[in-house]
Amino acid sequence: MTTLNTRLATRSLLHPAGETKLSVDAGEQRVAPFVKWAGGKTSLLPHLFPHVPLRLSNYFEPFLGGGALFFGICSRTTSFNAHLSDTNNELVKAYSVIKESPEELIPLLSNFQSEYDSEVDKSAYFYRKREWRPTDPIESAARLIFLNKTCYNGLYRVNSKGEFNVPFGRYKKPRIVNSESIRSASHALAVTKAELRTTSYKDALASCRAGDFVYLDPPYQPPSKTSSFTDYTPDGFSEKDQEELAEEFVKLVDRGCTVLLSNSDTALTRKLYRDFDTKKVTANRPINSVGAGRKGYKELIVLGRLRHNLS
Ligand SMILES: C[S@@+](CC[C@H](N)C(=O)[O-])C[C@H]1O[C@@H](n2cnc3c(N)ncnc32)[C@H](O)[C@@H]1O
Prior knowledge:
Blueprint: H1 4-14, H2 45-48, E1 58-61, H3 68-74, E2 81-86, H4 89-100, H5 102-118, H6 122-131, H7 137-150, H8 179-191, E3 195-198, H9 201-205, E4 213-216, H10 239-255, E5 258-264, H11 267-272, E6 276-283, E7 297-306
Parallel strand pairs: 1-2, 1-4, 2-3, 4-5
Antiparallel strand pairs: 5-7, 6-7
């Protein structure tokens, strides 16, 4: 749904000083994430777009997840080179398949869709796919996407052996295959010459240079112990990781990169980025371990410019 905020934010990206970049209807998402991801930023896009430079050369997103901002930008322009990474190897490999082999992936997913739709015991079908260990990258990507669309809340969680262990989601009619969405995501990844890597954010940021744009969206700093949702990978993301990330943030700013970060608005994140220009925004978080906390979550957006530089 197009909100006033979306329209205003989009306009500021598309028409600064009368410049029209692309003839995209305000708020339209022609390219969207192909997975639903914990901490996905689709609902935050109107707050993020105004801070994305108009002219991009190199775009770095080292906590990729569903890539809501990357795909959001691609709905408006694809004239940049993308450097996308995440520590989740299965996810990064699925991106590579989307980029390189969409026409092989789509029939496989269509097949899963018809099998699932005609299956009486959908839960059993889900658990069979969860147990399946394909070695072929296209089959692995299809499995990941299938599980993402049919598991509980579209979560990604693994056990100590690295095995996906989210239970069945009980959706009435999940859309397992969306050919249009896969093709547009594939096109976006191809034309931005997306470099896709499974690596830690620190390693990914080592090659950032002055003028590059970096978007950092780490696993949330939990506001309280009970709402912890930092176990995206077996490693999780600790308070110490948040502190180290804040140090990396400063280094990137010093190097002359344009940096944008989003995180939950907590005492720790406010303290870590106190020298920078921050904005508190309220957004719907689609996936959260505490049901009651889904609506109206407080997010902190941090801009890589010093507070005292603001007029
Ligand atoms: C909040 S999610 C990103 C969501 C994404 N912005 C979206 O719109 O869907 C954080 C991501 O960081 C990844 N991650 C966790 N620890 C990491 C690390 N040390 N380096 C790089 N990525 C990491 C997780 O696998 C997860 O996909």
